[in-house]
Amino acid sequence: MLLHGIFPPITTPFYPDGKIYFRKLEQNVEHYSRTPAVGIVVLGSTGEAILLSDEERREVLRCARESAANEKVLIAGTGIESAIETLRLTEYAAELGYDVAMVRTPHYYKGQMANPQNMLAFYRFVCDRSPLPVVIYNFPQATGYDIPAEVVVELAEHPNLIGIKESSGSIEKVQNMAEQTRHINRSATVTETFAAVTGRMLNAANAASASAEGGALVTVGALAGTAAQKPSSAAVTVVGRLKTRQKEVGFQVLVGAAQKLHPSLDAGAVGAILAFADCAPTACYEIYAAWKEGDAALAREKQERIAKAAERIVGGLSIPGVKYAMDYNGCFGGVPRLPLLPLTADKKAEVEQLLENIRN
After folding, report:
1. Which value, to the nearest 10 degrees, does the dihedral of the CA atoms of residues 311, 146, 75, 31 take?
2. What is the spatial order of strands in the sheet that 252-255 belongs to?
3. Cβ(268)–Cβ(174) under 8 Å?
4. For 81-111, what is each residue's pLDDT tens digit?
5. Burial class of 72 by CB neighbour count within 10 A (0 to 12, 13 to 18, 19+)
6. CA–CA separation, 223 vs 349, rounded Å?
7. Which H or E run contains 324?
8. What is the largest CA-CA distance in the chain?
9. What is the pLDDT of residues 111-122, one digit of tens each?
10. Which CATH entry fits the domain spanning 5-184+250-304: 3.40.50.1820, 3.20.20.70, 3.30.70.1140, 3.10.20.740?
11. Which neighbouring-strand residues pair with 7?
12. Cα 125 from chain centroid (whole Å)
């Protein structure tokens, strides 16, 4: 699966009494489906997944899946401390039609996690059995555990582990992982214009071509990019009206710090999952687009434009800050769930000032 580009890790909207506001979730997903974001992450840290029950997680996954455009890559946050429970939620996400599972590093038993064998065993167990390609999620600011680069490099050899979301903010670590996994050769199904092809797109195209004479069927499993032999990138496969080809992607490193997006891309990242994209998806995309076009000066200019706001709103004010920034910029943020509290009036004014020139 191609993960190049910008992904907003969407928030979970709540009523004031703490119940999930599903209509607003639908509206937010529909909004992100109209932005330049390549996909959407559901049940990440910004989605307050750790504060939801198992039933609520499943309901959020279902609601977001039903509201998303078919061409948007859907990543489900399925990481739970237990490998068995992680796998169960991953299997449910696959049944719904998600494209990738993002699995947070287990961290509660920190003393044991310091032994690399535990982390290697956890991810290998999940990847061996997961019906979806897997992305590691490393967020040491929240978990207190920072997965070592050498462990990631060793895990990257697994054919069902396609990338990592690296939220430590270390550009040196991004560069290290990108360089040490450069030898990994994988491919992903893409469109004629080299955009990602999702499982939902293939399913729709397969259904359309099933009754067409000579229609070529493509399995959804091909999206994982784990074939032993790589087809020629020039070869085009027609599925209904959808023309696809293969693109080399290797092991894909995504980052989580919007204020460091441009230098992270230069260091070897291929995209980003950015909480700041929840309130400013276009502003984040503009950095990526300028970098992709090779316009370093414009990328730096766009980076400088959001750096202060991203660092303060996401890094300083956290989820309450992101949610109010969404309210200010035209999405529904609303209140966080306890024990998190909404912003005070002075903090809201600070967010408004930071976003004065960053409107979507």
Report:
1. -10
2. 5-7, 271-273, 252-255, 161-166, 134-138, 100-104, 73-77, 39-42
3. yes
4. 999 999 999 999 999 999 999 999 999 999 9
5. buried
6. 45
7. helix 318-328
8. 65
9. 998 899 999 999
10. 3.20.20.70
11. 273
12. 21
Angle, helices 281-292 vs 296-310, to 10°: value is 150
Single pTM value for the model: 0.93
Question: Beta-carbon neighbour count of residue 192 at 10 Å?
Answer: 10
| Domain edges within the chain | 5-184+250-304, 188-248
Q: CA angle, 95 as apex, 207 and 102 as ends, to 5°? A: 115
- Please give the positions annotated as active site: 137, 165
Specify the residue for token string 């980003």. Answer: 272
Q: CA 76, CA 308: separation in Å to the nearest integer?
A: 29
**Residue 76, both tokens:** 């489900």
The one-letter amino acid at 54: D
Given the structure tokens 């050769």, which residue do they identify? 185
Residue type at 192?
E
Quick check: 250 and 186 in contact, CB under 8 A? Answer: yes
- Per the CB < 8 A criterion, the answer to whether 24 and 334 are in contact is yes
